[in-house]
Amino acid sequence: MRAKKFTSEGIVISRKNYSEADRILVIYTNDYGKLFVMAKGVRKLKSKKRGHLEVFSHIKFSASKGSGIDVMTEVESINDFHKIKKDLKKVALAYYFMEVVFKLTSQEEKNKELFRLILNYLDKLDIDKNLRTLRFSFIHDLLVLLGYWPVNRIMANPDKVLEEVLERQVYTIRIGKRLLS
User: Briefly, what is this protein's role (predicted)?
Assistant: First the structure.
């Protein structure tokens, strides 16, 4: 249970524009799991929060518990993974990681190991060149961590296993496959 005002470390999984100047962010946090947070005024050109809230950015933020959705009050970047953002293939893979995490996790289900796994793979993506292996390893490690796949069993086709777990296709998988081939 979160306090009325809280601070946490998190990774921005997705964002959606809301009204004229706001955004609704989905942040996977170290302390609370997946949270939906309103960032008010962040789309204004003079907003100080604007640059910190890009997808797959590692941030430290404060928020207040709202009646429906939490409202972000402060934010600072810990790591914006700028090397990833300079390479289109890496950006596509980072978005893929975020989409898979979004679809496989429930709101407010805390999992510190999952938070570390996401950060670890973003760090690897920042420096690694073998993106296909990294993608397969991420799917395998994530499915094992969440209990969808046995630890010692080899995964021949990670994409197929992931689709069976989700019971639908991951949208960014098509983009990722094309870019990585």
Answer: Involved in DNA repair and RecF pathway recombination.
